[in-house]
Amino acid sequence: MDVKEDILGNNCIEDVSWLCQLSESELDFLMSLKALVIQRAKVIRCEELVNNFDLKTLRALGAVLMENLKAKVKDSFDRSDSTKYCESLDKSNLLKVDIENVLNMEQIESFLYYSKERYRESQSFV
Predict the structure, then answer these.
(1) 108 found inside a domain
(2) Which PANTHER family match (predicted)?
(3) Which domain holds residue 24?
(4) pTM above the 0.85 mark?
């Protein structure tokens, strides 16, 4: 298996690039969402669901949930407040369907290396 296959797995470079551009809180949100799906799949005894819940599905679900949140915000606040909150939500990388700057494999490798180093450093303080 070459490095590209090892990093991308069954995912396209656009999806992995999008994932690399998420903030820590957005990644936490997606990991929690994935954990919820795994838990529900176990409860309903549908392990197939977990196997079919890939990055593309997670990305789509995250975008749908963020759009739903925007709609709820618009309905819940007066016009001036909802505009401010919706503008803030629009900045979320979870809503970015088309990525202007798709990372190449070298950039993704660098990002992953840097992320691993940051994780190791944070664990040394624990």
Answers:
(1) no
(2) GAMMA-TUBULIN COMPLEX COMPONENT, SPC97_SPC98 FAMILY OF SPINDLE POLE BODY (SBP) COMPONENT
(3) 12-94
(4) no
Q: What's the pLDDT tens digit per position in 24-79?
A: 888 888 889 889 888 988 899 888 888 888 888 888 888 888 888 878 777 777 66
Residue with tokens 């470079």: 13
How many domains does the chain fold into? 1
User: Looking at 22-73, which runs of residues are DSSP E strands?
Assistant: none
Q: Long-range contacts for 10-17 (Cβ within 8 Å, ≥24 apart)? A: 10/54, 11/54, 11/55, 11/56, 12/56, 13/102, 13/103, 13/104, 13/105, 13/108, 14/99, 14/102, 15/55, 15/56, 15/59, 16/55, 16/103, 16/108, 17/99, 17/101, 17/102, 17/103, 17/107, 17/108
Answer positive or negative: Cα dihedral of 53, 54, 58, 64.
negative
Phi-psi region of 112 (alpha: psi -120 to 50; beta: other; left: phi over 0): alpha
Is the residue at 7 inside a domain? no
Residue 105 lies in a domain: no
